[in-house]
Amino acid sequence: MQVTDRITAGDFRLIADSAPVPMWVTDLNRRRSFVNKAYVGFVGGDYADATALDWRTIIHPEDAARITAESTAGEASLGTFTLEARYRRADGEWRWLQSVSQPRWGSGGEHDGFIGVAHDVTERHEAEASLRQSAESLRLAIEGAGMATWEADLRTARGRWSPNRFDLLGYPRTDDHSGSVDDWLARVHPDDEGIARDAVARCFGQGEPYNIDYRIRRPDGIRWLQSHGSRIDYRDGRPSRFVGVSFDITERKTAEARQQLLIDELNHRVKNMLAIVQGIAHQTLKPDVDPLAARAAFEGRLAALAAAHNLLTDQHWSPVPMRRVIEETIAPHGRPQAFRLAGPDLLVAPKTAVSIALAIHELATNAVKYGALSVAQGSVAVDWSTNAGEGEQRLRMEWRERGGPSVAAPARRGFGTRMIERGLAAELNGTVSVTFAAEGVRCVVDAPLPAEGRG
Amino acid sequence: MRQLTGKRVLVVEDEPIVAMCLEDILTDLGCEVVGPAYSLPQGLAQAEDGRIDAAILDVNLGPDTSLALADALAARAVPIVFATGYGHTLGPTAVAAEVLSKPYTAAEINDALVRALQGG
User: Which domains does chain B possess?
Assistant: First the structure.
């Protein structure tokens, strides 16, 4: 088969019309002297309409100015030039076209115009836009979660930081987003620097990903951060990169420390309570006491202790009203109408409340067994007062029984009396005296008013 | 059990019932109780006067701790037994001392005091 060195105009038209992409030939006066079928199909109308159409009328307004300038420059260069812009197709849809134009030369070497070919690159543009959008969404999601990101070249240990990474580390943001591993290390707290350096060295050297908690020193104070870093290696010979995320975990660390403190405090209170229970057991379960009576006394004392603690728990271990301490303690003993309580509103510290409750319990127990509450007509008056405005603030409290059987002083002072006189006195740093007067038991407390009770 | 007879032991404990219990235990062991003191100021005052052979100190005394008192006693070479509700951790103190975890038994107190007195 023989191929001639010149193809005919008919052959050229056949070739051009069978091409799936728009093609055109322009004269020096920019008039289209030829367009192919794909070109006609894109702009619409018939062949004559297509050649007569000025392409500036179908270019997207946002691209018009740029393309006019670029095509003028391209034509003037007398070389091949490429343009990329949106054009309105015959069906009204905007399509991205990439056109490549190259100059035509006449047989005498003179410039005759240009030949152009256009490719529809809309899909590539859409894919790029979609990628940009998902990258943006990802960035928003990561930053919204309070995470700051970095990526660095393994050779220079320098790269790009997300804007919020500058904020996280307390640096001013820079226009080029450039940050280095050293910039980061300069912020790491000296006590945690070993952890940080070790993690990065192993990541750079062995490619080991890491996840570390550490402190940083920022101009506004110390913060706890968590960082996840890893090395990315490429098969195509590109240099490895060091990437990762960091976020602030100060609040979590603070909460953990607070929780530990609460656990320690609870542990302390439990141990202390066990020591008190042990003390009560030791004082109550003596060899010379009848076991059944001892057990009843022990249970009563534990119940008083439990009631006092219920009250404290209700009040979240803050100071409690004196009246409530007394009311709750006497509730299990005798008839409520046998008691008369009188005194001002006064708050007592939690620990003091427990001591007062235990003392009142002992007095009430004794009154029910031997004293005023052992008979129907007996009664107990509990009064308390403060000497407001008269120098040192003092608390005076009195328990006075009336209408009971004639009282005889006991042969020896038991735990109850001892606890009242010594325990409460020690707690209040004052004096407490129990008198076994014939007309009824009397207990008088005189103590400096605890700070919590002062106005 | 009679190694402690006649020993004067300072008791500092801010919980009166626990202090009473400790007093009884020490009395049973043959000790003479100095105190009890219920606060740091009371404890410091008790430590000032008289002869003390050993001290049992509650670590937490209301708003204070007994560490300052421990330092003062250590300076006088008085053996110390700490009693604490915080398990066996004491926090920073330069004082070498026995540590008892609350609640404690009479035997534990006896052993701790004997060790403290030997160590001193």
Answer: 8-119 (3.40.50.2300)
